[in-house]
Amino acid sequence: MRIGTLELDGRVLLAPLAGYGDAPFRVLCRRHGAAMVYTEMVSSLGIKFSNSKTFEMLSLDPAEHPVDVQIFGARPEAMAAAADALVRAGADAIDINMGCPEPKIVKTGAGSALLKNLPLIDEITAAVTRASALPVTVKIRKGFLIDDDVTEEILAICEKNGVAALTIHGSTAVQGRSGSKDWDVIAAAKERATIPIIANGGVKKAEDARKFLDYTGADFVMVGRAALGNPWIFDQIRDVLQGKPLREPTIEERFAVMVEHVDREVALKGEAIGVKEMRKHLAFYFRGLPEATTYRGRINAVKEHRQLIQMLDEYHMLCISAGEEVRRDT
Length: 330
Prior knowledge:
Layout: E1 2-3, E2 6-7, E3 12-14, H1 23-31, E4 36-38, E5 42-43, H2 44-48, H3 52-56, E6 67-72, H4 76-89, E7 93-98, H5 103-106, H6 118-131, E8 136-143, H7 151-160, E9 165-172, H8 183-192, E10 197-200, H9 206-216, E11 220-223, H10 233-241, H11 251-269, H12 271-285, H13 292-299, H14 305-322
Parallel strand pairs: 3-4, 3-11, 4-6, 5-6, 6-7, 7-8, 8-9, 9-10, 10-11
Antiparallel strand pairs: 1-2
Helix pairs in contact: 1-11, 4-6, 6-7, 9-10, 11-12, 11-14
């Protein structure tokens, strides 16, 4: 399967996950079957003006490629400048965020606010594709207001301006993560499209992804929050798509990944920040494990790398002795 010049080894992609989708997490998802990973959304103005915190978000690990770096903004010239910089940063593709519903993004005219301004979408996609030889992808919702559907118009703009693939989330900006997801709008876009369509929104388990792809005919499916604490979902979706039985990771496999995730976060961000960052990730990893509530509380008091590893070792032993099956639906 291809997106522009990129040859991908599967049909399942890791979505951009603000606050979670850093390099250590992306590496683990890539290893467990994500065909391509997306970064957290990065400010085009932050890149243009060399903001240090923005450039920290552009730390790419050799083990995560291919990686699609997502940028946001409402100024075509700044988006183009950012795209040019991302070539030097080692990105494999550039994604334009046109779907984020967060008020602080929308009020700047970026993210899902662009869905209300098709001429500006035209300008931005043209500017970014001119600025970079990398494949350019675009991620949208079907519209801004509850009854909006601008997918047909945006698809036409993307195709005209040389965009390599379009990701469609089947809800509107005002719905946020709530409400039903419109698979029909994605299926209709796929019927018209001359570029790959990536289906997004509502995948919680492997079987959801298979049904999503079958129903829409999309080329790829994108998985977001279902991957938190569960990078194995990409392996599971690949197996389901190949007709293989679904396999849950063992307790040993789960804790080995947790420890590696901790080590990678600390190596990238230092002990204080790395341990703090892992608290939110571990809360997801603990889902379905015995005494999860107790250990979620305990991790909030841990400040040292060594202490966190010791606590995970202790919890690992408890889970083994409990002999309980892990329930992914909890």
